[in-house]
Design a protein that fits this description.
Blueprint (H helix, E strand, L loop, with lengths): L2 H22 L31 H12 L15 H4 L20 E4 L6 E7 L2 E4 L18 E2 L5 H7 L2 E3 H4 L7 E2 L3 H15 L36 E2 L5 E2 L4 E8 L2 E8 L3 E4 L8 E2 L4 E2 L1
Antiparallel strand pairs: 1-2, 2-3, 4-5, 5-12, 6-13, 7-8, 9-10, 10-11
Length: about 290
């Protein structure tokens, strides 16, 4: 018997089975034709146990949901129109009783350009908007004002305070049939408040909105006239906002020049003495 030949055969067989064993333990990844091995703890591969694959949009949605805060019923659409937002702050949709005079008969102005509605009030025989204008562009895109601003650049503030307008846009901001008040209109408004309600300007102010200041006697806001002036302040040419809670600035016209009429504890709807280019103020349109 040739033992050398036997030894060579045994050695070759050992090498063959060793290579097969190494290939089965390879770490190069799962094999294409791999079949799960059943055991006493076998996995149930029925459709009820296997998760459906997600689409790319579902994956994006689930990842974005994890990254963003959840919405709540208290959040509002800051672009919503209508009176329910104008007099109430913090995004509430309920009208503020402090800014609506219960004994005043209000009218309604619907701006045909964007469909927004505003309260109107007659004071001294003249019809005024009882809310600040909040117009920037028409729904059909035919009118667009590019120099309008919301207080502190917060869109929801436009719903409460209206918009601030720079002079160029203020000249064309009111809807057809309405206009920026003339100096005589502001004087008549002040005189009517004094004659009818016996005060300087408390009857023109929204109740519960004005802060006490250190300047002179604090005026008691009654809003008896229904004018509902809100202390929105103004926007300076530098982009800073000032006067919220203590002053109201409205555009007006005098001898073809435009000025701010200021209502505060210091000013009884007086005209500002200096024309300030690129400052932005609120607008109360008056009916022609």
């Amino acid at each position: 018997m040739n033992f050398k030949s036997i030894d060579f055969v045994v050695l070759a067989a050992a090498l063959f089975f060793g290579l097969v064993a190494c290939g089965s333990d390879s770490s190069s990844g799962p094999q294409e034709n791999a079949v799960p091995v059943e055991s006493s703890g076998s996995i149930n591969l029925s459709s009820s146990a296997v998760a459906e694959p997600q689409t790319s949009s579902e994956i994006a949605e689930s990842s974005s949901d994890a990254a963003l805060p959840k919405s709540s019923s208290s959040m509002i659409n800051p672009f919503s129109s209508g009176l329910s937002y104008v007099f109430e702050g913090n995004g509430s949709s309920a009208a503020s009783s402090a800014s609506v005079a219960p004994d005043v008969e209000y009218g309604t102005l619907q701006d045909p350009r964007d469909g927004k509605s505003y309260k109107t009030v007659v004071i001294g025989g003249k019809t005024w908007m009882a809310e600040n204008l909040n117009f920037s562009k028409s729904t059909d895109g035919s009118v667009f004002l590019d120099s309008t601003f919301c207080l502190n650049n917060i869109l929801a503030n436009c719903e409460k305070y209206g918009r601030f307008y720079q002079e160029f846009d203020a000249a064309k901001a009111c809807p057809e049939g309405w206009a920026i008040p003339q100096a005589s209109d502001w004087r008549d408004l002040t005189n009517a408040a004094k004659e009818t309600y016996g005060d300087n300007n408390g009857s023109l102010r929204a109740v519960g909105e004005w802060e006490d200041t250190i300047f002179g006697d604090n005026v008691v806001a009654t809003n008896a006239s229904g004018f509902s002036a809100l202390p929105a302040g103004y926007r300076a040419s530098t982009g800073e906002y000032d006067g919220e809670g203590t002053k109201a600035y409205f555009w007006g016209e005098d001898n073809m020049n435009r000025y701010a009429w200021i209502l505060s504890n210091q000013y009884d709807l007086d005209k500002e003495s200096i024309m300030r280019g690129y400052f932005a103020y609120a607008i109360r349109c008056i009916k022609n």
